[in-house]
Design goal:
Blueprint lengths: L2 H11 L3 H14 L6 H19 L1 H6 L1 H6 L1 H22 L5 H8 L1 H13 L2 E3 L1 H18 L14 H22 L6 H24 L9 H29 L1 H5 L5 H12 L6 H18 L4 E3 L2
Antiparallel strand pairs: 1-2
Length: about 300
């Protein structure tokens, strides 16, 4: 693919990453009592890894010595992106509110932009910094449903601590993927990261399965596993990693601000939840803000 074509498709596809992740949040709401958090995450990434590994098997075999040499990188990325930012989100969602989750996750693009400036020498221009602020205000407006006084009434729980850890973990995951230069394709690299995630998830999932209250495996659990493995697992993570190579860490992370809008559409279409004026107002803030940052001139490299 030519550089111009790659840039075009990266700028288009990043807008749909949060739509794919919205499926993960939808399944997370259905998972309690059906499948435990670490078991769901283990199944998700084991299945995703097998599919991706099958597609990239020749490349992985040819690069097996380099992959083994970089094994600690894949183990670290698997821990950050699949264990902490995977299972812990399912776990934390059991004891905190959707509003708290959305507000805490709103810090991720800011953390990534800050980390990109320090680690990756990426710089945002004033126009793009304004876009970050504009989108952040829009996210908060959607989350609090237009009632900003609700921020003073928030109650915090252990689930919030887990979501905070997941937010920091995602920022580190995104930055390290960019920091650690890799010659593998996006498919092969994600397959290796999945392997690292499965290794770190396995003992926690086994511990869950041995608990007396562990739910029995059902076809319903299998459907949830397939959904989270194929859509937010392979789909969202692959596009994110692929786009980040072209757009940079800070620009790609801005699409996370689209999450509340896509989440509202998914909830409206699948759960019958209503849309309100706060969604419209938030859209008028979030969409232009993201567009300002994702523009080709959004980030420049320092000399």
């Amino acid at each position: 693919m030519q550089p111009e074509q790659r840039l075009f498709w990266a700028q288009v596809l990043v807008w749909f990453i949060p739509a794919l992740w919205a499926v993960n949040y939808f399944c997370a709401r259905l998972a309690p009592g059906v499948v435990d958090p670490h078991m769901l995450a283990l199944g998700r990434w084991a299945m995703a890894g097998l599919i991706l590994g099958g597609l990239a098997r020749h490349e992985i075999w040819q690069a097996r010595h380099q992959i083994w040499s970089d094994r600690w990188q894949y183990l670290a990325l698997g821990t950050l992106g699949m264990l902490i930012c995977g299972a812990w989100v399912y776990w934390g969602a059991q004891t905190t509110s959707a509003m708290n989750i959305a507000l805490i996750y709103a810090a991720a693009p800011v953390l990534i932009a800050w980390g990109s400036a320090i680690w990756l020498d990426e710089r945002m221009r004033p126009r793009q910094m304004f876009g970050v602020a504009l989108a952040l205000v829009g996210v908060v407006h959607v989350v609090v449903k237009g009632n900003w006084v609700a921020l003073t009434q928030m109650q915090w729980s252990m689930g919030d601590v887990l979501i905070m850890a997941a937010t920091l973990s995602w920022a580190a995951y995104a930055l390290l993927q960019k920091k650690w230069v890799c010659t593998l394709s996006s498919t092969a690299r994600l397959a290796c990261i999945c392997a690292g995630g499965v290794i770190t998830l396995l003992p926690f999932a086994l511990w869950e399965s041995l608990q007396p209250q562990a739910p029995q495996w059902t076809w319903y659990a299998t459907i949830l596993l397939l959904a989270v493995a194929l859509v937010p697992g392979i789909g969202a993570y692959w596009i994110y990693a692929w786009a980040q190579k072209t757009l940079g860490a800070s620009r790609t992370s801005m699409t996370l601000y689209l999450g509340p809008l896509w989440g509202a559409l998914v909830s409206w279409g699948l759960l019958g939840e209503s849309l309100g004026w706060h969604h419209a107002v938030g859209s008028l803030l979030i969409l232009p803000g993201v567009a300002l940052v994702v523009q080709p001139s959004a980030v420049t490299k320092t000399a």
